[in-house]
Amino acid sequence: MAKNESHQEANSLKRKRSLFRQVKVDFKTLQGRITIGFLLMGLFSIIMILTSHWSWKSQIENAKQVIKEDKNSSIKASEILQLVDLTNILAFRYLTTNEEAYKTGFESRWTTSIYPAVGELDSLTRNIENEKIIVFRNNLKEHLPKIKTQQSAAISNGSLEELNDEALIDDIVHLSYLVESIKSALQEREHETLAAIKQAERNIPILLTIEFIIAFIVSTLLALYIIRSVLTRIKFVRVKIREISEGNIPEQMEHSKDEMNSIIKALNGLIINLKGITNFADDVGKGHFDSNISVFENKGILGESLAEMRTKLQNVAEQDKKRDWFNKGVAKFGDILRTNNDSIEVLSGKLISELVNYSNANQGSLFVVNDEDPNDIKIQLKGAYAYERQKFIEKELAPGQGLVGQCYLEKEYIYLSEIPGNYVAIRSGLGEATPTYLLISPMKVNEEILGIIELASFHPFEDHHIEFIDKVGENIASTIQGLQVSLETRSLLEESQMRAEQLQAQEEEMRQNAEELEATQEEMERQSREMGAFNLAVKESAILIEMEVNGSISNVNRKFEKALGYMSDEILGKNHSFIWKNKQEAGTEFESILAKLQSGISVQKIINCEKRNGEEIQLYADFFPIKEESGKIRKIECLCFELTGLKVN
C-alpha cells in the first residue's frame, strides 16, 4: 500500500516537472523564445482588439445618448407648443361659453403641464453645449409667461378681442418659431452626430487594416527571429514551419526514423487541423454556420473555441436577422404614420392590416380610447383585419371589459397561449376567431393609454415580436395624440374664423353706436355737472340728517351743527328721538315715515326739535330713501329747512 502511494507521488511529481518544462519561459531556449513570442503576439493582438472595440463602442454609446437626448428634447418642445395652443383654445371656449371647467382646465394646463414640460426641456438640454439651442431655450422660457399673462388678462376681462389680439397671436407665432428653431438646431446636432458615426464607420476598415498590418509585421518578425534560432539539425523542418507561419498549408511530410519523427507527426497533425480550420473558415465566411466540419475533434482550447465561435456566430446571425426585421418594421410603420395622418379611421385600418401581415399573424384589431367624457370612457374599435381582408365592424368596450378592457386598466401587454376554442370568442374583441396565441398590447405615451393593439396567430409571438409591437404602439399612440389635437385645433380654427367674421360685421355697427353714445355721454356729463352743483347747493343751504333704518343718526352737516348747536361727534350714533321735542311720538312717527318710504310714497313733515340749549326749533323735513340694487332701503336722508318764526298754514 505504501509502495503504491510512493509510486503515485513519483508519477505526479514527474507530470508536474514535464508540465513545467512545456510552459517554462526561458529566453535562452528555443521553447522559451517561442513561448515568449506567442505571448507577445497574443497580448499585442488583444490590446489592439480591445482598444478598437472600446473606442468604437464608446463612440456608438455617446452618439446614441446624443440622439436620444435630441429626440426627447424635440418631442418635449413640440409638446410645449401644443399645450400652449390648447390653453388658447380653452381660454377661447371659456370666453364663448363662460363655463368654469374651461377656465380651470386653462390654469391646470399651465401649472401641471406646460411649466413642468419646460422644466423637463431645460433638464434635457442642460448638458448640450450648443449656443443656438441654449439661446432659443432661454428665449422660450422668457416668452411663455408673457403669453400666459395676456391670456389671463383676456379671461379676467372677459374679452375675446384681447384673446384674438394681434400681439398675442404674434407671441404664439414667435413661440412656434422658437420651438421650430430648437427642433432645427437639435436635428442639425443629430445630423452632425450621425455624420460622425458614419465617418467612424468608414475609418474602421482603415484602422483594422493598419492594425492587421502592424500585427502581421510584428508576427512575421517574431516568427523569423524564432525560425533563425532553430538548430541546424532541424533545418529540413524549417521550410514547412515557415510556410505555415506565412499562412500557407503545406502537404504532409513523410515520417522519419530519427528523433525528429515526433515533431513531424505533430506537424502533420497540425497541417490536417489547419486544413480543417481553413475549410471551417470558408464555411463561416459564406454564412454556413451549421457546417459539420470538426476541428481538433472539437477538443482542446482551440477546438472548443472554434466550436463555441460557430455557435455564437449562429446566435449573432439570428439576432441580426431579428434586429433587421425590427428596424425595417419601425421604419415601415413610421412612413405609414407620416403619410396617413388625415383620419384616425383610415390610419387605423391601414396600420392593423400592415401590422397583421408584417408580424405573420392571422387577424388583428386596433382600438382607440375615447376619453372626452372622463366619467364614460370608451374603447372603440377603429380597425380590424383578418385573413388578408379588411373588416368593417363596430365594437365598443368599457375599461375592464374583456381582455382589451383589462389591458387598458393594467397598462401592460397580455400574452396568452394554448387558448381554449371558445375563450377568445367570449373574452376578446376578435369575434368568433379561435387563435392559438393571443397578444394584446397597449399603445401609450407617458403612461397614458391612447389605444390597444390585439393580434391573434396560430404561431407563437417571440420576444422580439412583443418588443416590436410595443415600440410601434408608442409611435402610433404619439401620432394619434397629435392627430386628435390637430383635428380639434382645425375645428376650433374654423369656428374662430367664422366668429371673427361675425365680430367684424358687428364692429361696424358698434362703431356707429359708439358715436351716438359719445354724444349722449357728453349731454349726460353736462347734466351731471348741473345736478352736482344743485345737490351741493341744497346740502349747503339745508339741514342734512342721515339715519339708519333703525333710527340711529349716522351723519349730519355743518348746517345741522349751526342750527341745533350739537357737534357731530355728540350726535352720531344716537337715536333720532334725541333731537325731537316730543320723544314719545318720535318712534311712532319714524315707523310711519319708514313704512311710507318703503311703499314708494314721498314724505314731507313739520317736526319740532330741541336745540342743545333747550330751545325749541321747528323744521320742515323732506324724507327720501337711499336704496340698494335689490330695492331694500339702506339709509334715509332728511333735508330740513328752519321754520321757526315763520307762519305756516
Can you offer a commentary on this structure?
It comes from Marivirga lumbricoides. Residues 544-575 form the PAS domain. Residues 493-537 form a coiled coil. This is PAS domain-containing protein. This protein has helices at 2-23, 30-97, 100-124, 131-157, 160-163, 166-228, 235-245, 261-285, 300-339, 344-358, 402-410, 423-427, 463-541, 558-564, 568-571, 583-598, and strands at 363-370, 378-386, 389-391, 396-397, 414-417, 437-445, 448-457, 543-548, 553-556, 603-610, 616-627, 633-642. The protein has 649 residues and is an alpha+beta fold. Strands 1, 2, 3, 4, 5, 6 and 7 form a seven-stranded antiparallel sheet that branches. It has a five-stranded antiparallel sheet with strand order 9-8-12-11-10, sandwiched between helices. Helix 9 (300-339) runs antiparallel to helix 10 (344-358). The radius of gyration is 49 Å and the shape is elongated.
How do the helices and strands line up, and which of them pair or pack?
Elements: H1 2-23, H2 30-97, H3 100-124, H4 131-157, H5 160-163, H6 166-228, H7 235-245, H8 261-285, H9 300-339, H10 344-358, E1 363-370, E2 378-386, E3 389-391, E4 396-397, H11 402-410, E5 414-417, H12 423-427, E6 437-445, E7 448-457, H13 463-541, E8 543-548, E9 553-556, H14 558-564, H15 568-571, H16 583-598, E10 603-610, E11 616-627, E12 633-642
Antiparallel strand pairs: 1-2, 1-7, 2-3, 2-4, 5-6, 6-7, 8-9, 8-12, 10-11, 11-12
Helix pairs in contact: 2-3, 2-4, 2-6, 3-4, 4-6, 6-7, 9-10, 9-13
Protein name: PAS domain-containing protein
Keywords: Coiled coil, Membrane, Transmembrane, Transmembrane helix
Domain PAS: 544-575
